Predict the 3D structure of the following.
Amino acid sequence: MSQEYILEMSDITKEFPGVRALKGVQLRVRPGSVHTLMGENGAGKSTLMKCLIGIHAPTSGKIVFEGREVHFRNTLEALNAGISMIHQELSPVPERCVSENLWLGRLPRHGLMVDHKKMRADSVALFQKLGLDVDPDAKMGDLSVAKMQMVEIAKAVSYDSKIVIMDEPTSALTETEVEHLFRIIAELKEKNVAVIYISHKMDEIFRISDDITVYRDGEFIMTDRAENLDVDRLIALMVGREVTDMFPKIQCPIGDTVLKVEHLSSGRAVKDVSFELHRGEILGFAGLVGAGRTETVETLFGMRPKTGGKIYKDGKEIHISSPEQAISHKIGLLTEDRRGNGIVGLLSVRDNTVLAHLKHYGFPLKHHRMREDTEEYIKKLNTKTPTVDTPVKNLSGGNQQKVLVGRWLLTNPDILIVDEPTRGIDVGAKSEIHSLITRLAGEGKAIILISSEMPEVMGMSDRIVVMHEGVMTAVVDREDFSSELILKYATSEEPYHAASH
Amino acid sequence: MNKTFDSKKFISQNFIWLVLLMLVIIMSIAQPNFFSVNNMLTLLSGEAVKGIMAFGVMFAILSKGIDLTIGSSAGLVACITAALVQPADYANAVLPGVGPLPAPLVFLIGLALGAAIGAVYGAIIAYTKIPPFIATLGGQLICRAAAKIFTNRPVSNLSDSFRYPGSAKIAGFPVIVIVFIIMFTIAAFLLTQTRFGKNVYAIGGNDQAARVAGINVEKNLILVYTWCSICAAVGGMLLAGRAGSADPANSGLNYELDAIAAATVGGTSHTGGICRVSGVLAGILILGVINNGLVMLKVDDNMTNIVKGLIIVGSVVLDMRKNAKRA
């Protein structure tokens, strides 16, 4: 490989009806390097990658791959040429086994029949080469997200990819799984495979990147070696302004107990969880993936059956067996799965905003009030949308999240539960959501914050509940916060006893 | 640049009405009598029953479901209500000595019966989560069989007041068309002006999100199929009134397919979450123009069905492409 760059994209412009998503941007990737793309959501990173692998056709611009100009018309062409992409949302065939997923579209054949033996042997060989511990006969749908991702990476390797694009690969991984991923990335580098990495997690980026390119609002800002950059400078470049305080924690007076949960259980996912929540308090929930934090709040919110325990609000016992009841008790839940159970993509920003509040618009519905309320929250939350009638799926992730935040604020809850509120959204929107949460606590609302990002949960919370495999292992007060302590409890098997504390 | 953009948008938003306009123009040229007041009223009267059923089934499709029962339940309701309005001394009465009950009461009984049928399979769909296709396929067989068990011969000699909505005319204007317009108005009101309508859009678009937002998905699904079945009951009673009799084997037979076709041509998406009442109205009229126009042109029945089939499939292909572009 004599040329300096394996991939050169220059002057790429992409226009969608009414929007210029990319304005003459460039990207140069060296072979065998990890090249990170950074930028707020809507900066154009994903669009650029889609132009590269043939999902979008660029309006103008030139793509040179391995010295030749290329125009891929679809992802298969890109894949065969040696460029593969591991998407943020994986798309396996859940009911079929791992090896079938791996060789999908190019199953080894024996005459007219599929050669199952070879397929399995090839899978085993491939996994061994990459040091992956995946059972080729397991059903794809039974694997953890991390394992599925490993399979996707193996698939990319099996195509002899020269470039592997990873779009936020770590957003659903635990720390050990992230380590494993990084080892695989290192191995890919050794094989002279270039990795284009998209992520918002600063610590990761500096650990693995060789080069970093920053985009903002569809424009190319700069490319530099990672060692020449630091976090503050990167954020400044991405946002175009200095973000001074990522976690604007303001200590506000903690009021009365508003929620008391006793021995809450839900099957094997949640076992005997008890805690109290006060007005003005932000109660963090920390733990590794699979700790049962999401399941705990889902049980609280009536999304999954409660198999034991009691819930008291303002001193009175309440019974919640559906989200409808939870909402009537003035509880809101911003779920972690924005697309799965958050937005209704086809519906407008307005319809999405008022969805949890529809009971308050009378009969027949007062459409002008729905519009006014939506406009109010668009303004309050600084949501970027062309109109209130725009389908919410056309918005960027960060703005979709703001629509959902608006939905819950509109219901004026006493208790707002936010589950991974900043996952996969850009730095600017992230900091806005952080200040909003703090402000809400200041107004006397009680907040439950689930976050897998240690700096976030430690920066925002007054107290942190730590969980491990459905069991509560600690409640840590703010003055005792340290990542070591929380991580210790997050891996501890020992249940928490309020009395011994 | 802005102006050209707007005209494109206008065409894409009103595409189906432009198709209808084109069809009407073509038919009028081919057969000058086509676009006469009389023929238009004939056309509307002919499509009214299927159209009303389309206003029902579009809710089911919008919620990402389907309702195959409506043709049979229309038949069942037609037979039962017809049996209540036969003369008391009629030798061939299905329920000797019962009738004739006053028409308004019978209409209420018919609506209640329709609502009850829909509520039952709506509840089965909502709580067991079996695919609506299967639940309503079962319902279709059961309702048709129930009608045949109820009476093994056509129910005829019905009271005039029962037949009024289906067959009478006010100053030359068919009452059945008035009922059609009323049902259109109710459907449009439900869909756009009530919480129920918004809920169905949300359930069809993303039922998990709808649930988290506090929508009682089960209750709303039951309401969807209840409404479907009420529309079928209205259709069934009109059908009996129009024909002057109800036939357990043939009343409403395959009407669910015409209703689904109209809703589909009208742009209701089978993947849920997309539906416009005006579109469905246009869909009903398009199929009506083809039915009526090709009959006037003496085109062979099989040929008519081929044209209809192509239009149904073509409209969905166009819709999918339109929706994909918007993504």
Remarks:
- The longest strand of chain B covers residues 169-170.
- DSSP finds 14 helices and two strands in chain B.
